[in-house]
Amino acid sequence: xxxxxxxxxxxxxxxxxxxxxxxxxxxxxxxxxxxxxxxxxxxxxxxxxxxxxxxxxxxxxxxxxxxxxxxxxxxxxxxxxxxxxxxxxxxxxxxxxxxxxxxxxxxxxxxxxxxxxxxxxxxxxxxxxxxx
Length: 132
Fold this sequence. Notes:
Blueprint: H1 3-131
C-alpha cells in the first residue's frame, strides 16, 4: 500500500466517522424530540384521566346532593302542610277559648244574680219565720 492509498483510507475512515457522528446526532435529536412528545402525550393522558375521575366524583356528589335536595323539599312540603293544619287548629281553639270566656262571664253573672236572689229569699224566709 502506498502512502496515498493509506491517506485515502485514513481520510475515508475519518470522513465515515464524521458522517456517522452527524447521522447519529441527527437520529439522536429526532429520538429526543420523539421521547419528549411521547412524555408530553403520556402526561396529557394522565391529566385527562385525572380530570375524568374528578368529573365522575363531582357528578356523584351532584347526584347525591340532588337526592338530598329532593328529600328536603318533600320534607319541607310535609312540614308546611302540618303547619297549616296546626294554625287551623290553633285558630279553632282560640275561637273556642273566646266562646268559653264569654260563657264563663255569663255564668259568673248568672251566679251573682242567683246568689243575690238566694240571699234575698233566705232573708225573706228568715223574716217569715220570725213573724210566725
